Amino acid sequence: MSSLLKITDLHVSVDEKPILKGVSLEIRQGEIHALMGPNGSGKSTLAYTLVGHPKYEVTSGSIEIDGVPLNDLDPCERARLGMFLAFQYPVTIPGVKVADFLRHAVTNIRNPARKEGESLIPMRDFRKELKDRMEELGMDVEFARRYLNEGFSGGEKKRMEILQLAMLQPKFAILDETDSGLDSDAVRVVSEGLRKLAGPQMGVLIITHHERLLEYNVPQFTHVILAGRIVETGDASLAHELHNHGYAAVRQRHPAEAAEEQEHQKVAPKVAAIAK
Amino acid sequence: MTTDVPVLDDEIGVGDYQYGFHDPTDKYVFKSRRGLDRDIVHQISEMKNEPMWMREFRLEALDLFYSKPMPTWGGDMSELDFQNMFYFVKASQGQEKSWDDVPDDIRKTYDRLGIPEAEKKYLAGVKAQYESEVVYGSLQEDLAKQGVIFTDTDSAVRDYPDLVREYFGTVIPSADNKFAALNSAVWSGGSFIYVPKGVKIEFPLQAYFRINTQNMGQFERTLIIVDEGASVHYVEGCTAPTYSSDSLHSAVVEILVKRGGRCRYTTIQNWSNNVYNLVTKRAKAYGDSLMEWVDGNLGSKLTMKYPAIYLMEPGARGETLSIAFAGKGQHQDAGAKMVHCAPYTSSRVISKSISKDGGRAGYRGLVKATHDAHHCKSNVVCDALILDSHSRSDTYPYIEVNHDNLTIEHEASVSKIAEEQLLYLMSRGMSETEASAMIVTGFIEPLVKELPMEYAVEMNRLIELQMEGSVG
Fold first, then answer.
1. Which residues of chain B does A49 touch, with a Cβ-Cβ cutoff of 8 Å?
2. At what angle do helices A154-168 and A123-136 cross, to 10 degrees?
3. Contacts of B13 in chain A (CB under 8 A)
4. pLDDT at B262 over 80
């Protein structure tokens, strides 16, 4: 049976400022969803909320995987239940080698009941697997010995996120603007990488401004978010339309949200910037 | 040491100090009464059957100890009660060459600490000091044949009187500071090492210091002489039982590295949290030699320790790598001193300190150049990592230079574990503890990778233990 990520009427605040105002979404394993929307509409807020960022406070509504509520779980517990976020801005962890980090992560995800200090997956198997995945993504194996994201270019960081996705094989993957800030070659590499990984065992939510990622990974569903609400849902052609014509038509169709969006940006440009 | 620590029994819980057990032994050969006075000093000297010069050296130092005030800087020593300590405890008849001859209770302690096992695997020689004296010693035969001396300092006074008398107290005079004076008065045990010209010792020599008695004062005295073109790596480890009242460890370590010689002195200090660790360490490095201190301070209640290198002749290099970790109730006042006494000398200090659960860790350092020490270079980098809002880090860098013809660089940074870093690691399935430990391990990685593998593993394991049991 395929797993279900179910988001019901989710309200989220940052620093007591409401950002998401009732988001509902269902993603099944094997499906690809696109989430599009103008800056400040709440896309990244949804991403961070799903993985349990402590700054994002759920004021009402629920997130469930197969009926298990995630609201009170920390990011580690959610990851062990199959949630994954490819970060828009992956942080640097100085002194921690990619291989060591991934070996811990892979061990925990595959053995969710593991306690600290219990043994890690065997080095030999892990090394082979890591080498294979890196080669598939066209990455220099030397990266395994580098410190996590330290001195990485924008493209290298994004590829590192995709490598983690490949190693951890989550049930649900959220890609937060994984294609932003990359040149077209890098976008192609990331897009192809994702296409190879996404399959019947993975539900994918692609947050993007661009269309490129979606060309390689055609979404069955496209959602448009405006001022913290999903205002429209369509198929791949909706994504195509938004890419070609922008959000003007969407705003016209949803004047109440468009007004709210304007108000929001006037009152709290700073919060909008955080949510971006 | 391997990653497998001997499994200890129910006294030890996860996240607790692992070496907090004590031996039930009460079969001491000799235990002085509490407190310090001239009679105690006489008694120690008599027990050791020392020559008169050493007894006079001690008594002079005792007067210096009395005459010097307590330092008013550094850590809080107001609860340190000199009259409540035992200054000399002799646990066995003498230094044994086989573990089988070491009294059972004591041998078991070292078994639990994994020393005999480490000795078999990768050490060229071992000294095990229990309370005041060395109870076990070994040295690889081929090294002994090449003239290497590795013995306890008590035996050295008897067996190599000329060598000892020539150098003892010359690097750190008794009058240097109050605790150097105290050590000079009541010293006992410690290592004496002489490496003859051109002899390079490949594997480390290790000394292991253990305090077992409550309110014990341990005052080992180490003297290392590395002759021209010779090299040695000496490693010391320290542990003690956890008691509710305090013990004192106040060592003096003197090192001479002659022309072209090389000495690395590594400390993995893991005293229990009731030990005052007030240690004076100093080396003199002569022409084209290299002296390195690798100083890891993880345990103790209060540590005040600033390993010094006096660069005596052109071409001498000094390097100190310092790691201090202060948890609950701990204050690590660690650092380094580099004194450029000659032109064309260079020094480097890298210090990493970590504080958590209200602990306080700091760097206190001095770079000094005499006025004819031109064309010198010194580079100091200190980084501090603070794990929570009630912990503290201090940096006190002192520079004393009277002319321009030299380069001194000093960089310092203080960082907190960023929420974003924790989130990133946790979102990959790591618990908060595991994620914090990984960030800390990464923070000290540039230093740990300088250590031989076995010690790097040990250091990382100790850091992980320090991190455990702290969250939640």
1. none
2. 130
3. none
4. yes
Distance from CA of A264 to the nearest CA of B (A): 26
What is the predicted pLDDT for the residue at B14? 33
A227 neighbors A264 (Cβ within 8 angstroms): yes
Stretch B221-235: mean pLDDT: 97
* pTM (predicted TM-score): 0.82
With CB atoms and an 8 Å threshold, state whether B428 touches A168. Answer: yes
Chain A nearest C-alpha distance from B101 (Å)? 36
The dihedral through the CA atoms of A230, A231, A237, A240 has a sign that is negative
pLDDT higher than threshold 80 for residue B105: yes
For each successive 10 residues of chain A (276 residues), what is the average pLDDT? 94 95 96 94 96 96 97 96 96 94 96 86 94 91 94 92 96 93 84 89 91 87 96 93 89 93 68 43
Contact A105 B428 (CB under 8 A): yes
Rounded Cα distance between B414 and B436, Å, is 16
Task: Tell me if A75 and B421 make a contact (CB, 8 A cut-off).
Answer: no
Chain A partners within 8 Å of B420 (Cβ) = 91
Write down the domain spans for chain B: 30-305, 420-472
Structure tokens at B190: 């410690």
Q: Distances from the Cα of B265 to the Cαs of B125, B293, B339, B341, in angstroms?
A: 14, 5, 18, 21
Strand partners, A6: A26, A64
Q: How far is CA B155 from CA B50, B95, B137, B160, in A?
A: 10, 9, 11, 8
- How far apart, in whole angstroms, are the C-alpha atoms of residue B325 and residue B361? 7
Alpha-carbon gap: B426 to the closest alpha carbon of chain A (Å): 5
In this prediction, residue B9 carries a pLDDT of: 35
Q: What is the pLDDT of residue B26?
A: 66
In chain B, residues with a C-beta closer than 8 Å to the C-beta of A148 are 442
What's the average model confidence in pLDDT over B101-118?
Answer: 86
Q: How many CB pairs under 8 A join A and B?
A: 89
- The predicted model gives B403-426 an average pLDDT of 87
Tell me the average pLDDT across B105-115: 85
- The answer to whether the Cβ–Cβ distance between B468 and A116 falls below 8 Å is yes
CA distance A258 to A248: 9
pLDDT in the model for residue B121 = 83
Q: A36: which 2 tokens?
A: 């599009």
Q: What domains are defined for chain A?
A: 4-89+164-221+230-275 (3.40.50.300)
The residue among A48, A73, A84, A96 with the most chain B CBs within 10 A of its CB, best to mutate, is A96
